Amino acid sequence: MHFSVLPPEVNSGLMFAGAGSGPMVAAAEAWNGLASELESAAAGFSSATSELVAQFWQGPAARAMTGAAAIYAAWLNAAAAQAGRTSSQANAVVAVFDVARAATVHPALVAANRSELMSLVLSNVFGQNAPAIAASEANYEQMWAQDVAAMSNYYAGASAAAASLSPFDLTPRGLYINVPYIGGTINLTPGNLGAFNLGLGNIGLLNLGSGNTGSYNLGNGNFGLLNLGSGNGASGRGDAGAQLLARFNLGSGNIGDYNLGSGNYGNTNLGSGNTGNANVGLGNHGHLNLGSGNAGSENFGSGNTGNSNLGSGNTGSANLGLGNTGNTNFGSGNTGSNNVGSGNLGVANLGSGNHGNTNIGFGNKGNNNIGFGLSGNNQIGINFNGLNSGTGNIGLFNSGNDNIGFFNSGDGNWGIANSGQGVGPLSLQFGTSGVWNTGVGNSGFLNTGVANSGSFSTGFFNSGITNTGLFNSGATNTGLFNSGATNTGLFNSGATNTGFFDSGTANFGSFNGGSTNTGDFNSGDINTGYGNSGGVNTGILNAGNLNTGPVSPFDQHVLNSGFSNAADGAFGRGGVNQSGFANQGLNNSGIDSADNITTIIGGQVIQGTIGSSGFENHGNFGSGFLNSGAYSSGFRNTGPTYTGPAHMSGFVNSTGQYISGFFNAGTITEGVVDTFNSGFANLGNQVSGLFNAQNQESGLFH
């Protein structure tokens, strides 16, 4: 959503939230420091090379080295100049931001205006406040225009600064050289294909780490350029997947560029476990979010499904508050749009607990009412009969039925300001707009927790469905900050991982940009080990394929790596694309994948597991320990069948599909397969919470 259509509450809130221009000032200083370091490095490198050639090293090799050193020093000087220009433009952005912030209306003034308006409207029984209301609205319009003008100038200035930047020249031209009498390129360590590598087993040039495919990487097992961490990128080697370069990542396990964090799938994220671009936070699925666990874009808050929300747990867009279902609500627990207040079920209400449209007041049931507890349309006054317009209520200002509490427009709620359907006894709701939720600020369906906009989740700020944990925007995760699906762990943007910071799929380990790895920091696929950018290796720091052992950039002409791997059917006893130990099937890593599964692919029979990582798994395309059922992660989960999809994460779950958490079991119903359980020790279908034994429940002990 463009800032010109956002109210001043949002624009002012965004401009005054966060760290301000401080991080950009720090970035400018860092770029300036980098420029100085590069200049010093160029001077020192040239001086050391010249002195070495002048005193001790003579002959053809020395002349070749001198030429390469001159090229590299020139590149360092050019990079230093570029870093200096980047520092200048960062300072320009700081200046533009500071001017825009100074021109933006302070959020406190906006809040004071809205508070004044509400007071005037609520006391405007006979219309005596009409001039003051008009003046307040005019002042609000001026604030809106002032914020839009400030944001427009900010956008123009920042865009101009960004447009003047030019990309770095990543490759020093002519740096590959053949040294006479050596028969290859210069590397300071063995096992590299390329030039000037300081690490081992690299394919590329000037890698400080090992097992990289690419150049200028400081870490290990990267597929790309200039990564400071390890396991970034997806080489597609081992499973013939897409090749996704990663560049300039200050972190590990990323697929994308310029990420300051780990496990991201996208670009320029400040945080971890994000799927999307330019997020500041954790576990988001979308773009430009400031917060965590959002499924959408431009949200300032957490657990939202939608765009441009300022708050948490909203389903919709441009809401300011908690747990709203709808758009442009200012408050919490509303179902509908354009409400100012909380717990409204309808559109354009000013107040709380209204069931209907365009009401001003509290607890009204109908349309166009001004007052308290009124039933009907176009009424003005106060209903002194308990001040409830619904039936069977205990409390005040309830327009729904059978509620205990205040400002409820839904039915069967125990709590305050709920517009959704309540669960009843043992379940409290505050500011919820969803159905059968237990907790605070939930806008989804059958959640237990706080600010969940998804459904069937147990935890806080989940925008995905069937999660057990916090800030998950993906589905069926057990853990925290996962934007992918069916993960057991933290900060995963990929799917079906057991571990942390994985942007690939079906990994048992952490910081993997590749897929189906048992180990850490792999950008290749189907590896059992550490830091491999190649595929199907059993070992560490390999850039080649099918190696058993460490630091090889070469491909081996074998069917499997590792020990005692086998397969039957169309592929013969030798097996295909397996690493690790005692696996049977196709595309497996780890130890002892199951042999009691029969799968037919393209008319060919495969006896064994397909595409799994970990230890003793009896299911295809999964990860973890001792799981049975396809697409599962975690420990000791049991799906309906070995080959059918289970979609389970967590620990010791059984009987059903789409289950996360601990010790949950679905109930088998004829013709019904989907379960959707989360939480702890639940028995039934579509359940969240703890210790429930009935279907479609949230909360505790139902």
UniProtKB/TrEMBL annotation:
Residues 2-165 form the PPE domain. GO terms for biological process: response to host immune response. SUPFAM superfamilies: PE/PPE dimer-like. Residues 293-318 are annotated as: Disordered. Coiled coil: none annotated. It holds the Pfam family Pentapeptide_2. Belongs to the mycobacterial PPE family. This is PPE family protein. It comes from Mycobacterium simiae (Mycobacterium habana).
